[in-house]
């Protein structure tokens, strides 16, 4: 475990030289993304942040940006509106960023929630949570990789469930469209598993970029309520009676979560570049103390889930990659 003291010491070294100069936060309008934006801005460093979010969050996000500017006048936070559950919108937002920037140092992705209710699709025919947690996140990465390639210590952090991959996902139904296949117990592990296999492939193809798939632990953001609908009364009771009390009891504090994710975004512990790290180097998903994909848990430890990932690498990675390419191709 990386102690909170070590994390604080590392984060205290974030300055105009070590901070990501240009960062893109998708999901920074609430929860862990918002906490991490705040932690980054509070370092006092000179940063430019593209805060990407949907129209319905615009008003309250303007108030948040006002607060951020008061906290650190050197931080430039740019509201960037986009319906990020949609691939076409994701492409449009990326084109905007690409037209303004020649490099991106950090891409931080947190959109999504566990779908406790019935299947709901976006206008593009993709189940909403799979789109938020996987497809649009990967599309953001693919579009911004050339700009990440121009940074000195580029990082992509996707917050979902690194280390919790399953080898038993149904490779013949990656969209969970078969009757009865769409359940929260299938959807979440699928998004987690697809994220890790695809990020590992991208890490192999882009050795200068550091990829992190973060498992955030429980953070009391209200995320657990997002996936309930009016038809899922039993689930609503389960969330209210069981999950919420458990989360309240065991959740990591907001400030701690923000600091831990800021550490993941900036420390050389993962991949060797960034704020100098003198502890044990992070071990990547291939089991090596080198750059690549890191599966990082809520205590900032690297996990391997090695047996499962070895099976996925052999049997699932190619199929998931081909399927992803097929879905994303029209928007590349
Ligand atoms: N919190 C936890 O304990 C926990 C534990 C394990 C995994 N996770 C996963 O980690 C990720 C981040 O969690 P979090 O707690 O930070 O989540 P959160 O506070 O609920 O924030 C989720 C983000 O997703 C956006 N979003 C949700 N539905 C959307 C939609 N239909 N269209 C566009 N944007 C949408 C939200 O935008 P708005 O601000 O506009 O609503 C927000 O920016 C999530 O994928 C979550 O499932 C969380």
Summarize the structure in words:
By secondary structure, the protein is an alpha/beta fold. It has a single domain, classed as NAD(P)-binding Rossmann-like Domain (Rossmann fold, 3-Layer(aba) Sandwich), CATH 3.40.50. The chain is 43% helix and 11% strand. The protein has helices at residues 4-11, 31-41, 58-71, 87-100, 128-148, 184-205, 233-250, 254-266, 306-315, 317-328, and strands at 22-26, 48-53, 76-81, 106-109, 155-159, 210-214, 293-296, 302-303. Strands 3-2-1-4-5-6-7-8 form an 8-stranded mixed beta sheet, with helices on both faces. A hairpin with a 5-residue loop joins strand 7 (293-296) and strand 8 (302-303). The N and C termini lie far apart (39 Å). The mean pLDDT is 96. The structure holds NADP nicotinamide-adenine-dinucleotide phosphate. The site of NADP nicotinamide-adenine-dinucleotide phosphate has 29 residues, from helix 2 and helix 5.
Tell me the fraction of residues in β-strands, as a range. 5-15%
- The counted number of beta strands is 8
Envelope shape:
globular
Please describe the biggest sheet, giving its number of strands, its sense, and whether it closes into a barrel.
8 strands, mixed
The count of domains is: 1
- Mean pLDDT across the residues is 96
| CATH H-level homologous superfamily name | NAD(P)-binding Rossmann-like Domain
**Helix proportion range:** 40-55%
Low-confidence stretches: none
CATH architecture: 3-Layer(aba) Sandwich
Classify the secondary structure makeup into a structural class: alpha/beta
Amino-to-carboxy terminus distance:
39 Å
Task: Give the number of helices.
Answer: 10
**Largest beta sheet: what is the strand line-up?**
3-2-1-4-5-6-7-8
Supply the CATH class: Alpha Beta
Order of helices and strands: HEHEHEHEHEHEHHEEHH
């Amino acid at each position: 475990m990386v102690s909170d003291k070590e994390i604080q010491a590392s984060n205290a070294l974030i300055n105009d030289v070590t901070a990501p100069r240009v960062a893109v936060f998708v999901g920074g309008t609430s929860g862990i993304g918002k906490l991490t934006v705040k932690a980054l801005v509070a370092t006092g460093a000179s940063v430019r942040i593209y805060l990407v979010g949907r129209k319905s969050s615009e008003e309250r996000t303007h108030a948040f940006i006002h607060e951020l500017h008061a906290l650190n006048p050197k931080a430039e936070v740019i509201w960037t509106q986009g319906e990020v559950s949609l691939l076409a919108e994701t492409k449009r937002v990326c084109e905007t960023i690409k037209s303004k920037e020649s490099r991106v140092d950090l891409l931080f992705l947190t959109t999504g929630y566990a779908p406790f209710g019935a299947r709901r699709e976006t206008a593009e025919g993709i189940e909403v949570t799979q789109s938020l947690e996987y497809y649009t996140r990967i599309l953001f990465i693919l579009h911004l990789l050339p700009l990440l390639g121009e940074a000195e210590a580029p990082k992509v952090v996707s917050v979902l469930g690194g280390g919790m991959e399953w080898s038993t996902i149904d490779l013949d139904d990656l969209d969970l469209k078969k009757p009865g296949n769409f359940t929260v117990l299938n959807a979440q592990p699928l998004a987690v598993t697809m994220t890790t296999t695809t990020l590992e492939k991208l890490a192999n193809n882009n050795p200068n970029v550091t990829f992190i798939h973060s498992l955030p632990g429980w953070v009391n953001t209200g995320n657990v309520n997002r996936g309930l609908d009016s038809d899922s009364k039993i689930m609503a009771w389960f969330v209210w009676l069981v999950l919420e009390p458990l989360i309240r009891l065991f959740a990591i504090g907001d400030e701690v979560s923000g600091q831990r994710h800021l550490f993941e975004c900036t420390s050389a512990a993962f991949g060797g570049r960034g704020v100098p790290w003198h502890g044990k180097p992070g071990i990547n998903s291939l089991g090596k103390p080198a750059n690549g994909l890191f599966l990082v848990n809520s205590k900032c430890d690297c996990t391997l889930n090695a047996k499962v990932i070895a099976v996925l690498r052999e049997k699932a990675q190619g199929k998931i990659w081909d399927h992803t390419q097929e879905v994303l191709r029209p928007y590349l």
